[in-house]
Design brief:
Radius of gyration: 21 Å
Largest sheet: 7 strands, mixed
CATH superfamily of the largest domain: ATPase, nucleotide binding domain
Shape: globular
Distance between the termini: 56 Å
Number of strands: 21
CATH class of the largest domain: Alpha Beta
């Protein structure tokens, strides 16, 4: 029996999950949870890496004997080491504004389609390529993505796990290695890019425990734990601060239509390509709740849902991915302004604002699924909803209603479970991700949501698309 520790970092919290596997089933428990609050450093919004590393060390001290540990985090962000293996400043947050205008500058040197064809990533200002182009790199010797940075801090290994590297807009699907010519376009010395290692690789030791690269990107950990028996007809939605909706493919989709549809190719832990769309997710709900609290109305998430349920359906919609919603602050005003400029009724009450967000997310999922189907030629029969969004039954039902297919919600701890399964593969306890998925199917509670009110949602989708066209 192996016992492992999975560190799962989200954009607002970090968690340490201890798990034991007896050859048939997993036993998991949360050892430690801590906040992950961005901090200001100079002119930039940053991650407080020393604090986070301290919480990691606390969790390790609390968990007793374990055989191994691994980290997963959000994508694109990184730290830079100097020639003395010292961290150069704090890692900068992807929501920092330093990349404003940078993609346009890079695309003066290479066409957007050539950039997409080389790297497979949706062209977004948050991508590592553009962050590096905006940064002073003169003292940098090594780039390490966030999960790799934690592993380095414990065992000294300097490598990049492939799934997290594939979020960077610097990974080449054609050669399975760094796209060094693309890196050079952004003024990046390719020598700072570390060796690539595959998911489920042991890279070192820390106090007698093996340090494993699971899948560094949390989305790929979640997809690894997707309890699908027939992946060809299944789509997935990893739903948390971000919503990543997609499907597993044998090869990257690099067409001009795929680029125009803003779809992204990322490497999965099983070597498949996870073809997906990045959508602003529960960040919108989290942020508007914070804005309500600042105004003196301290709602629980459940209270916000109840307010939304009491409002008229399909009154107005936003595009969750409109640029104005990417930055923190004034979410109610931003929603009202979007509705005004797109000639829609303006939501006045708190409940109407929240319902607008929920319905808009569900509609954007439908929009994305249609794009995925068009670009892959597939007909999806079920959506596996994974992660924190599983706990939001209101959103789960709306997603089923909007898509018109059943939604299988669970596991809620998909990211941590995927991290754990990949550690067990590295240790030899499991043979493959498929075997790990069978373990998940056997023991996790999966709730099914069937579509309702299909005609009403069909008509409302036309209104949503009209709002998108008017923005």
């Amino acid at each position: 029996m192996s016992t492992v520790l999975a560190f799962d970092f989200g954009a607002s919290t970090g968690r340490a999950i201890k798990a034991s596997y007896d050859g048939k089933s997993l036993t998991c428990s949360e050892i430690h949870r801590f906040e992950n609050i961005p901090t200001e450093s100079g002119k930039h919004l940053c991650w407080d890496f020393p604090y986070l590393l301290g919480e990691v060390e606390k969790a390790i001290a609390m968990c007793g004997d374990i055989d191994a540990l691994a980290f997963d985090t959000w994508g694109v962000d990184y730290g830079l080491l100097d020639e003395n293996d010292k961290l150069i400043g704090l890692p900068v947050h992807y929501r920092d504004t330093r990349t404003n205008g940078v993609p346009e500058r890079i695309c003066q040197k290479i066409s957007p389609y050539d950039l997409y064809k080389a790297t497979g990533n949706q062209i977004m200002p948050i991508n590592t390529l553009f962050q590096l182009a905006a940064e002073d790199k003169k003292d940098a010797e090594t780039l390490l993505f966030m999960p790799d940075l934690f592993a380095w801090a414990l065992c000294g290994n300097k490598s990049a796990e492939r799934t997290i590297a594939s979020t960077s807009q610097m990974y080449g699907f054609a050669n399975g290695d760094w796209a060094v010519d693309i890196a050079r376009l952004a003024g990046i010395d390719p020598n700072i890019l570390p060796p690539l290692v595959s998911s489920a690789t042991v890279v070192g030791e820390y106090k007698g425990m093996k340090v494993i690269k699971a899948a560094g990107h949390d989305t790929q950990c979640a997809v690894a734990a997707m309890p699908a028996e027939h992946a060809k007809c299944s789509a997935f939605l990893s739903c948390g601060t971000w919503s990543l909706i997609g499907c597993e493919c044998d090869a990257a989709v690099l067409t001009e239509k795929s680029m125009a549809d803003e779809l992204s190719n990322e490497l999965g832990a099983n070597g498949k390509v996870n073809y997906l769309k990045n959508i602003s997710g529960l960040w919108l709900i989290q942020e508007i709740r914070r804005n309500f609290r600042q105004a003196g109305r301290d709602y629980s998430f459940n209270a916000m849902e109840q307010l939304a349920r009491a409002e008229k359906p399909f009154a107005c919609f936003i595009d969750p991915d409109a640029p104005e919603f990417a930055a923190a602050g004034a979410m109610p005003d931003k929603i009202r302004h979007f509705c005004k400029k797109t000639d829609q009724p303006i939501p006045e009450s708190d409940g109407a604002l929240v319902r607008c967000i929920y319905e808009s997310l569900a509609m954007k999922y439908r929009f994305a699924i249609r794009q995925l189907a068009e670009n892959t030629g597939r007909q999806f029969e079920v959506l596996h909803l994974l992660g924190g969004g599983v706990k939001d039954g209101f959103l789960c039902q709306m997603t089923a209603d909007s898509l018109g297919i059943p939604v299988l919600a669970g596991p809620v701890e998909a990211t941590a479970l995927g991290n754990i399964l990949l550690q067990l593969i590295a240790l030899g306890d499991l043979k493959s991700i498929d075997e790990g998925r069978a373990v998940i199917r056997a023991q996790e509670q999966i709730r099914q949501y069937r579509p309702e009110n299909s005609k009403a949602w069909e008509l409302a989708y036309e209104k949503f698309c009209t709002a998108l066209c008017r923005q």
